[in-house]
Amino acid sequence: MAEVTAPATAAPPATQQGGLTDRAKAERKLAYILCAPAVLTMALVAGFPIFYALWLSLRREDLRFPDAGEFVGLSNYAAVLTSETWWSAFSNTMIITVVSVILELVLGMLIAQAMYRAIFARTAIRASVLVPYGAVTVVAAFAWRLAFDPATGFAVELFNLDPPPLTTHWGSMAVIIMAEVWKTTPFIALLLLGGLALVPDDLYKAAKMDGASAWQRFIKITLPLIRPALMVAVLFRTLDAFRIYDAAFIITRGANDTDTVSILGYEQLVNRLNLGLGSAVSILIFITVMIMAFIFFRFLGASPERR
Amino acid sequence: MRRAGPGVAAIAAAACAIVVAGCGGSDDGPVTLNYIGPLDPGGTNVAAAKECSEQSGGRYEIAMFPVANSADATRELFVRRLAAGDKNMDIINMDTIYTPEFAEAGWMRELTGAQKEDALEDVLPGPAESVTWKDKVYGIPTNTNVQLLWYRKDLVPQPPETWDEMIQMAKDLPPTEGNILEQGNKYEGYVVWFNNLVASAGGEIVNAEAEPVLDDAAVKAAAIIRDVANSGRSDPSLSTAQEDQARLAFEAGKGAFMLNWPYVYAAARSDAETSEVTKKVFENMGYARWPGVNKGEPSKVSIGGANLGIPKSGKNPELATEAALCMTSEKWQKQEAIKEGLPPVMNSVYDDAEVRKVYPFADLLREQLQDSVVRPPTPSYSDVTLAIQDSLHPPRSINPEQSINTLRDRLKILADGGMY
Question: Is 0.95 exceeded by the ipTM?
Answer without folding.
Answer: no
